[in-house]
């Protein structure tokens, strides 16, 4: 049942992404068409023609990039898969985040009470937790502790990212994962959580978010334990 639920949700996300992406591709394509039309005028100078051509090229490149990014998110099978020691990989991620944490007076505390392995792509795993931890740090406007925990039971392994930041309302929590959903205005893209959630689903993980306004947020990721190891 859970498997089914996760699959349905993932499809929903892909559909939303497709809508967002066609919107993103339409802008450069519309611009490109405009420049092709301008170039149909045979009386324009060679200089102008070169200028239009270079804009045309850069518009087509940005449309191509949108598609490429989309394929990277939806095609995890082309990525190299390895057995990852979760604690080691989380250490790498927290090291990457250290400068940003310092700048925001955030202290990252890791507490690994167990060891487990995940089969997945190393880069994607890093990207997923960089996105989550970056948000946590950004939510902690006055600094404080940020906990990274690893724990397991007989059937599941958990990774928890627990911040003491500004938290979210129920509505905000429900919108997490929606493409382009951001409360950060110009400085946000609203793509981080969506990408992270897609990566977690590709790793057969499930996500649980608990948040309280003014108190903080906990992202809990749960993975089935592979008992054959
Ligand atoms: P961005 O960071 O570019 O806004 P994200 O997809 O990473 O986009 O996050 C979407 C939104 O989710 C953020 O704008 C923020 O409102 C909310 N959010 C995510 N993580 C947290 C967190 N740890 N604490 C509070 N709000 C968060
Ligand atoms: Mg973000």
Your description of this structure?
The two termini are 25 Å apart. α1 packs antiparallel against α2 and α4 (122-139) crosses α6. The longest helix has 38 residues, at 2-39. Helices cover 52% and strands 21% of the residues. The strands form two sheets. Strands 2-4-5-7-6 form a five-stranded mixed beta sheet, with helices on one face. A two-stranded antiparallel ribbon has the order 1-3. It is α+β, with helices and mostly antiparallel strands. The structure holds adenosine-5'-diphosphate (ADP) and magnesium ion (MG).
Fraction of residues in helices? Answer: 40-55%
- Topology as a string of helices (H) and strands (E): HHEHEEHEEHHEE
* Morphology call: elongated
Our estimate of the beta-strand percent is 15-25%
Sheet of most strands: 5 strands, mixed
Oligomer: single chain
Radius of gyration: 21 Å
Q: How many extended strands?
A: 7
Short description:
Helices cover 52% and strands 21% of the residues. It is α+β, with helices and mostly antiparallel strands and 229 residues long.
Question: What are the main properties of this structure?
Answer:
binds magnesium ion, 7 strands, transferase, 5-stranded mixed beta sheet, 229 residues, alpha+beta, single chain
Give the secondary structure arrangement, pairings included.
Blueprint: H1 2-39, H2 46-74, E1 82-85, H3 86-103, E2 106-112, E3 117-120, H4 122-139, E4 144-152, E5 156-163, H5 170-175, H6 192-202, E6 206-212, E7 216-224
Parallel strand pairs: 2-4
Antiparallel strand pairs: 1-3, 4-5, 5-7, 6-7
Adenosine-5'-diphosphate binds next to helix 4 and helix 6.
């Amino acid at each position: 049942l859970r498997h089914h639920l996760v699959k349905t949700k993932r499809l929903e996300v892909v559909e939303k992404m497709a809508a967002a992406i066609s919107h993103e591709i339409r802008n450069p394509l519309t611009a490109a068409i405009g420049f092709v039309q301008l170039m149909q005028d045979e009386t324009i100078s060679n200089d102008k023609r070169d200028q239009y051509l270079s804009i045309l090229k850069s518009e087509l490149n940005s449309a191509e990039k949108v598609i490429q990014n989309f394929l990277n998110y939806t095609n995890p099978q082309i990525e190299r898969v390895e057995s990852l020691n979760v604690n080691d990989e989380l250490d790498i991620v927290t090291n990457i985040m250290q400068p940003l944490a310092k700048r925001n007076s955030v202290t990252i505390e890791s507490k690994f009470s167990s060891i487990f392995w995940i089969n997945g792509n190393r880069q994607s795993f890093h990207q997923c937790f960089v996105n989550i931890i970056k948000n946590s740090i950004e939510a902690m406007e006055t600094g404080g502790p940020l906990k990274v925990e690893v724990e397991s039971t007989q059937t599941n392994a958990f990774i928890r990212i627990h911040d003491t930041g500004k938290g979210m309302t129920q509505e905000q929590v429900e919108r997490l994962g929606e493409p382009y959903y951001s409360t950060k205005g110009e400085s946000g893209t609203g793509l981080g959580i969506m990408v992270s959630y897609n990566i977690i689903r590709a790793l057969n993980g499930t996500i649980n978010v608990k948040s309280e306004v003014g108190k903080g947020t906990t992202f809990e990721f749960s993975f089935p334990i592979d008992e054959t190891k």
